Amino acid sequence: MGFIPISINEYIKTHLKNNPSESEKELRKRLNSALSDYNKEIKCSCGNDIWVIGSAAAGNSCFTCITGERIPTDDYEIESAIKKRENRKGHRHIDEMDPSEIHGFFMTMDMK
Ligand SMILES: [Zn+2]
To answer: Which domain holds residue 68?
Structure first.
């Protein structure tokens, strides 16, 4: 589970194959701007990291706010954004935990 990493170029190729009427230039511009917003730590209105690929189409929002789903299953994300997420230590998102884990997490916090 989680995002499937993809490069901007690869994603553009895939996306244009499925949406031949879209302009490559526009798409690239929107992806680059969403990625640079992501790198500037711009967050979704709910406080989560934005989903770069979805934000290119729907405006800066996180995966959950755009799709209504809690966890990505076979959705793409730009690989440099994924790397950045993984490098950030100690900031694991509660959204990515399963409910039993969240329960355990809060139990541990209570005991401290
Ligand atoms: Zn959100």
So the answer is: 4-111
